[in-house]
Amino acid sequence: MYYGYFNGTIAPTDQLAVGVTDLSLLRGYGLFDYFLTYNGRPFQWDWYWERFQNSASRMHLPLPLSKDETYAIVMNLVERSNEASLKTGLTSLNDLAFRFILTGGYSADSISVVRPNLLILAEMIHPTPTIQYEQGIKVILDEYVREMAEVKSTDYKRVILMAEAIRAARASDLLYQKGGEISELSRSNFFIVKGDRLITPDRHILHGITRKTVIQLAQSDFQVDERPVLLSELYDADEAFTTSSTKKVLPITQIGDLTIGDGYVGPKAKFLLERFDELVKTW
Amino acid sequence: MYYGYFNGTIAPTDQLAVGVTDLSLLRGYGLFDYFLTYNGRPFQWDWYWERFQNSASRMHLPLPLSKDETYAIVMNLVERSNEASLKTGLTSLNDLAFRFILTGGYSADSISVVRPNLLILAEMIHPTPTIQYEQGIKVILDEYVREMAEVKSTDYKRVILMAEAIRAARASDLLYQKGGEISELSRSNFFIVKGDRLITPDRHILHGITRKTVIQLAQSDFQVDERPVLLSELYDADEAFTTSSTKKVLPITQIGDLTIGDGYVGPKAKFLLERFDELVKTW
């Protein structure tokens, strides 16, 4: 059983509910963040908090809790969710995902922001299937760029709208490009590898915490270029991969009709995934 | 007291709530529609239903109710909301606003659509202040175009984000333009008047039901041009106005620094508002 926090109340997640005048429901006005715990501790907490705060500020929503208050609630939810799991007979404590959601709050005139609503939800982690790490994934190109891409708003209409097209292509996700410039996947960042160079888009993207972690881990072995990346650069890439909290470092072996490198998972993505797994093991 | 319907349950609106795995909350995946009743009957019901159905189809969400079932619920909510008002001592039955909200529904993996959630809410009408009809409103230009403008998705982030800028300019709303082409206001359509010509944008807009009604009402007295409208055309416009269900026909006398015509409410907008008021009086 998972617990959540909503405006001061802590309860099992399936007992939490939001009133129907919330501006996320009426007007799509909300933002979120999402991270995992490793060994019971929030991964890269300082960076996630900074990004959450930045999204809130860019959307003109004051945060109702301080960093320390929020951390205390997260740890409280870790404890309660674990206690509940132990009671149902599970013996090992598993790590959790956390979702913060900040909305425009309840609005009497259905447009004016008065006081934001804050949800903090502990969730089950949906791990990426092992076969995807072994074979790499296929993505399809989509001409699109997210509005206010740097803000983690809740606007993910595009990928839900494209779900049928993704399935029809036997692909896992979209790779967004606009006018030939690549930005990101629908919920994760994008890298290509050329020799000892890692190349990753630096604009029209959400600045991923896993992206930042991987760039740090890569410093001693790679030259990392953060810059605009063109579609044409895919043709002579050795490897491609995507990064996110749940995908970690996930190889991409096909982009639309184009096979990346030799079509198999490459050594550089594998190497970075190992470095990442080492880091989180002792987090 | 106002009543609402949520997935089969009818209750006072303030007792309705949506669980926290709804895709409108998690991913901004929702659409809506909004109309008024006149003399207790839904205004332009056929047209609103057609548009709601079209939005749902464009967002790949099956409608859980038929047109007739939905109409019966609307009339049920009219009755209950009126009964509740009578009990509290009000003697006259007032007209209501209705908001339909269709979301991506509850999602276990926070991205896949399984079964949409449908809300039908009776609401108080927020009438446009009389002084705005007497003096006209000011709007400010904003370089923006709504994604999937023809679909009434719940995505109104832009105008909420710009609320401070609108207030600072002592304006009432935004007029969207992109590359010099005007589309619409944040929640209403746009018209200019030149002589006996009504000119209104025909693309990148939500096809407003009030817009359609006004075009019908205008047929015998105006030539109506539905076509792309450029910013440069504002300079020699006699009048400008906006249309929506709650604004009806509302004059615009200032757009940014530009005064429209002589800066006063013009006779053509007044004439069309009178025609509109006559129509709804006997609806």
TrEMBL record, chains A, B:
<dbReference type="Pfam" id="PF01063">
    <property type="entry name" value="Aminotran_4"/>
</dbReference>
<keyword id="KW-0032">Aminotransferase</keyword>
<dbReference type="InterPro" id="IPR001544">
    <property type="entry name" value="Aminotrans_IV"/>
</dbReference>
<dbReference type="GO" id="GO:0008652">
    <property type="term" value="P:amino acid biosynthetic process"/>
</dbReference>
<dbReference type="InterPro" id="IPR036038">
    <property type="entry name" value="Aminotransferase-like"/>
</dbReference>
<comment type="pathway">
    <text>Amino-acid biosynthesis; L-isoleucine biosynthesis; L-isoleucine from 2-oxobutanoate: step 4/4.</text>
</comment>
<dbReference type="InterPro" id="IPR050571">
    <property type="entry name" value="Class-IV_PLP-Dep_Aminotrnsfr"/>
</dbReference>
<keyword id="KW-0663">Pyridoxal phosphate</keyword>
<protein>
    <recommendedName>
        <fullName>branched-chain-amino-acid transaminase</fullName>
        <ecNumber>2.6.1.42</ecNumber>
    </recommendedName>
</protein>
<dbReference type="InterPro" id="IPR043131">
    <property type="entry name" value="BCAT-like_N"/>
</dbReference>
<comment type="pathway">
    <text>Amino-acid biosynthesis; L-valine biosynthesis; L-valine from pyruvate: step 4/4.</text>
</comment>
<dbReference type="GO" id="GO:0046394">
    <property type="term" value="P:carboxylic acid biosynthetic process"/>
</dbReference>
<keyword id="KW-0808">Transferase</keyword>
<comment type="similarity">
    <text>Belongs to the class-IV pyridoxal-phosphate-dependent aminotransferase family.</text>
</comment>
<dbReference type="GO" id="GO:0004084">
    <property type="term" value="F:branched-chain-amino-acid transaminase activity"/>
</dbReference>
<dbReference type="InterPro" id="IPR043132">
    <property type="entry name" value="BCAT-like_C"/>
</dbReference>
